[in-house]
Amino acid sequence: MAAIAVPWDSKAATADEQGNGDRDMTSKTPAVPAVALGTWAWGDSGEAGDGYFGSQLTAYGRREVAEKALSNGFTLWDTAVVYGMGRAETALAQALKGYARGEYQLSTKFTPQAAGDGDDPVADMLEQSLDRLGTDYVDMYWIHNPADVARWTPRLIPLLRSGQIKHVGVSNHNLKEIALADQILGKAGFRVEAVQNHYSLLYRSSERAGILDHCREHDVPFFSYMVLEQGALTGRYGPARPLPEGSSRATVYNGVLPQLRALTDRMAAIGADRGAFAADVATAWAIAKGTTPIVGVTKADHIDGLVRARGIELADEEIAELEALADAAGVDTRGFWEHEM
């Protein structure tokens, strides 16, 4: 059985606590959970045509999700400024209100494309995130996209030294960009401590490019996002039941749902043998590949699925079969924001 979620290590010593100018991060690889909780959809306004997911979320519903997640050991929440331009961070803070800061971990991002024109856009964006999240530090801070690795990565160093950032990661970076970020941070005694890329049965570019192998070899956790492909791999949707009209994901996925039928049917069958569903199998596959899936949670019963996924052990033959069916579907789900790995 997959391990129960392990809280993120948010108690790594700050530079002041160690009595030196830098932290040697090589021995402080953060502990990671089996599954992290995604809040991309929490940034939707809820208005038709004004959001990626077309989600109808309420403060009460998000609070239910938070309570159920934490009670089941899921404590790491992943968000970003650009998820609704602050709406997701604000909604997450509201959902977690009343919980002690040590009971959960926060992961948010600096997005270069949304940077301001101040003297230090990274520090400015972090400060805005901290304000919305109601905290004075984040457990993980990511460079969201590799718009200019050499320009933005050094800006993380003083934030690590101050303790406002406990750990640093890179998202949507290829091997060359990961290596450059690691080199820049390494000169100050830090390192890239996690990688977060799009990775699912339908999109395995990080695996084929050697990024998963790199992470394993260097003891760097790999976080996989879009493991459910915005719902297309949950088995809930098909030609007769398309994704919600008025959402961007409907435009991206509805046309390929017929091609996914054989894959999602097999996932459903594998799940049924274990008292689970297709979505649980997609998540379990990502865990079996040695990654930490970031799964979007918009309903309390989504947490039940994560509990099931956490307990599923897929046989090597099942993994190979699912990947073969995914390849046969011939679907490319690379996002508009992604470059080739």
UniProtKB/TrEMBL annotation:
Q: Does the keyword Oxidoreductase apply?
A: yes
A Pfam family hit = Aldo_ket_red
CDD domains, A to Z: AKR_unchar
Q: Where is the NADP-dependent oxidoreductase domain?
A: 35-326
Key words of the record: Oxidoreductase
Region described as Disordered: spans on this chain? 1-28
State what protein this is by name: Aldo/keto reductase
